[in-house]
Every structure is written in structure tokens, then in C-alpha cells.
Amino acid sequence: MNNVLCSIEVSIESHFDFFSLISKGAVLNMNNIDAITNLYTRKEQSLQGGQARFDRERENKHILLSFANSIQERDIVTYDHSRRVATYAQRLARYVGWSRRDARDLALAALVHDLGKTWIANDILHKADTLSDGERKTMERHPLIGARILIGCDVHPFYVETVLYHHEAWDGRGYPSGLKGEEIPLSARILTVADVYDVLTSQRPYKAALSKDAARERLLSGSGASFDPMIARAFLNLLDSQPHFTLPQRICAIPSTAKTAYHVASSVRL
Ligand SMILES: [Fe+2]
Asked: What does the pLDDT look like over 27-61, one tens digit per residue?
């Protein structure tokens, strides 16, 4: 299946068939992520004028914020976590030199990074005990499920690959693809550090929250293994230089509209 799919010569006319193949469960890997990116770029180039492009960006945002709202409805813990991760990722991206706009796009990706968990059964998602091997494998499908949902909606590949690769590890021991080092998109490397810091400092049914210092030590020990050393160092610098860097567990009231959610996620003062 993998080779068959990779060898498909995809034309712009057939891209909907291709996207629907992937979103329905065909193999998703780096080769067809490249194909998706190429198709998207060609479609972007075919758009007439700045207004069409602007509309397309707005459409992307609308889709992603709708998904963020669906996460909120499905699982408030994942939603609150995603809000904090979005804020951390946005701060970190700015710190390593990303433009405001790019950092805001990363925050948007972070808001839906665990979208695939909305398709994981409650008895696994909320389990207080250690997951069995089978349950862990099911749980580890969430980046793939999230990416497929986004592909099905034809959002920009930046969001797809950030969601797909947010559990990859610098040393190649992550999932779903086992990418290594700079093979992992920078957006996903930033998101990983933000994600892990929030998980470490959050209370979950199966674990207590770590203190800031204990979480700091875990990030430091994971640098070069789980995390891109440069990104981990940048995050630690931020953590050390800002006394109130760590966000409270509930960062704000539940917004009534998707627009509000995006505004809150993207309004971090830097
Ligand atoms: Fe995740």
C-alpha cells in the first residue's frame, strides 16, 4: 500500500481523490506529506490576487478554530492543555526569532495538536492507571488521526505536519514516523517542548504535577534525546528569565466563540 500510494502521480485535478484517500486511512508518511504540500502550493499559486489568498488563510483559521471548539466540547482537560501549549509555543517561537504572524500560526496549530484524541475512547483517554500496550498503541495514533482530519479539510500543510509530528523525538525514538533531528519540522520541535512542559507541570488522573524546578530538570535531561537541544535551551532561558512564565491550570474562562478563542491564544504579550 505504501509504495503504491507513493508512486501515484498526483495531478491537481485529482487532488481531492488523493486527499480523501489519505483522510480515509491510506498510509500517511513524509512522501505524501510532500505531495500534499506541493498540491497546496500549486493551488495557492493559482489563486488570483491577494484577496483570494487572504480568504484562504481566513478559511484555514475558521476550520482550525472550529476544531478547537470541538476539542473543548469533547474534553475540557485536553482543551485547557492545548490553550497553555499554544501560549508556550507562541512565546518560544518568538524567542527563537519567528515573526509574530508565524508564531501565531504555530499557536493555532498547537490549539488542535491533540485533535486526534477526540476519536480515542474515554476509557483509554481518561484512564487513571498505566495504559496497556494495546491501549498505548491506540493512544499513539492520535497525531495520525488529527493529521488525517486536517487533510480531509484541506488546511495548509504547515498545520498538518505540525500536528502529525508533535510526538517525534530528536533521537528518532518518537512516533508516528521515527523522524530524527532536523528531519522533524521546526514547528513540531517547538511544539514538543511546549507540550511536554505543560504535561509535566499539570496534574493528571495518573500523575501529580511536577514543580517548575523538577520539570526544568526533566527538560534538561531530555535535551538531545527527546528534544532539539537548541529549542530546549531556548525554553529553559525563557523559564529562567520570567518568574511567572508557568501558566495556571485554568488560564481563562471558556470563550463563547471560536474567534474569541483564537484572540486569546494569539494575544500573548512578548
Ligand atoms: Fe499529543
From this structure: 677 767 777 777 777 777 776 667 777 788 889 99
**CA–CA distance from 50 to each of 56, 149, 216 (Å)?**
10, 27, 44
- Look at domain 3-265 and name its CATH class: mainly alpha
pLDDT at 230 over 80: yes
- In the reported structure, the alpha carbon of residue 83 is separated from the centroid of ligand 1 by a whole-number distance in angstroms of 13
The 3-state DSSP class for residue 204 equals strand
What is the Å distance from ligand 1's center to 254 Cα? 21
- pTM listed for this prediction: 0.82
Give the separation between CA 217 and CA 131, rounded to whole angstroms.
25
Distance in Å, CA 125 to ligand 1 centroid: 12
Buried b (16+ CB within 10 A) or exposed e, 6-24: eeeebeeeebeebbebbbe
- Please state, in angstroms and rounded to a whole number, the distance separating the CA atoms of residues 252 and 170: 33
Residue 120 Cα to chain centre, angstroms: 17
CA–CA gap between residue 201 and residue 198 (Å, rounded): 5
Q: In this structure, what is the dihedral angle of CA atoms 93, 96, 101, 105, given to the nearest 10 degrees? A: -30
Domain ranges in the chain are 3-265
Residues with CB under 5 A from ligand 1 (ion): 114
